[in-house]
């Protein structure tokens, strides 16, 4: 069976909600990331792209009607390049990479572009169609930015709690304090700010035309646990709440893309791969416990790769909330110092459909920077799921 490899990656800077990227349509953001990643492999003839697999969580507005295909057309690729769009909410673009790797390993493709996009700023309000003609009453528009909307009344209320309240339940059940969460969040901002200042992201991030955004917009330089401790809880009262705007990921806009291919595709792509995709897995549990779903997803992915936690030298865990990130780290037999060593989504941002591709591309570079062999990328997913991928740096000396 052929092996699958990550050859190139590129992403836009991630913008804050209502910020620098709010004026850019999500299909244009997707086309930007797609163009940028193909610029990384200039020897590739676009006609040789077997498929494009794109992630997007919303798909209720300008990102509707198969935004992956829209990105292909807007990027000016040959109309013969096919595309599909997948939706596993926050894990969508990591799922896209999984789908791409499976196609390569099955022998159905040599080169697949995977990625994802989200514009949470431009997510529309939606109104359901009436059950009968000419209704006399008012209707309420539902925001599609984040979380449940137009909920089926058959769903248990425990399952449909807000994402924040679900994680407050997690903090309460596992005894994860507000102080730990703020320390974790401050670390994310400090590491991200340092990484940007030292140029770590320079070759991973490409600009968006017409937008002045030199780096991820939500990184707070000089963030400290003390400063974060002064923020008010967002989902519960001031005495019982632990989750704030400072220790949770922000609403964000952005896109990210990956080139995935077979070992033989190196000739088409003009260079050696960055990493081998060695294992992957998804996991599901009760919807309100989604924050810890990456625990078993990563354990299963490692088992399928034949790797133990003691072999892992780097982890990129999407920081949806500090509390769920800490819960995962507490459950894994891993050194916390190897997790998100250049910051995470609390600082960098979390455009839902793009985050999986972002963590995977960051992981590939971290493995090479640290000269370590095995790494794990993992994402928690609303409605009780998690997805994880194991990468191997085949050039590592240890």
In words, what does this structure look like?
The chain is α+β, with helices and mostly antiparallel strands. It has a domain at 4-122 and 250-392: Peroxisomal Thiolase, Chain A, domain 1. Helices cover 30% and strands 19% of the residues. It has helices spanning 26-39, 67-74, 92-105, 163-174, 178-197, 225-228, 266-269, 293-305, 322-331, 345-348, 355-369, and strands spanning 4-11, 15-16, 51-55, 83-86, 111-119, 125-126, 142-143, 252-262, 275-284, 312-317, 374-381, 385-392. Strands 1, 2, 3, 4, 5, 8, 9, 10, 11 and 12 form a ten-stranded mixed β-sheet that branches. Strand 3 (51-55), helix 2 and strand 4 (83-86) form a beta-alpha-beta unit. The longest helix has 20 residues, at 178-197. It is globular. 54% of the residues are buried. The model has no long low-confidence stretch (mean pLDDT 97).
Record the SSE blueprint.
Elements: E1 4-11, E2 15-16, H1 26-39, E3 51-55, H2 67-74, E4 83-86, H3 92-105, E5 111-119, E6 125-126, E7 142-143, H4 163-174, H5 178-197, H6 225-228, E8 252-262, H7 266-269, E9 275-284, H8 293-305, E10 312-317, H9 322-331, H10 345-348, H11 355-369, E11 374-381, E12 385-392
Helix pairs in contact: 1-2, 3-11
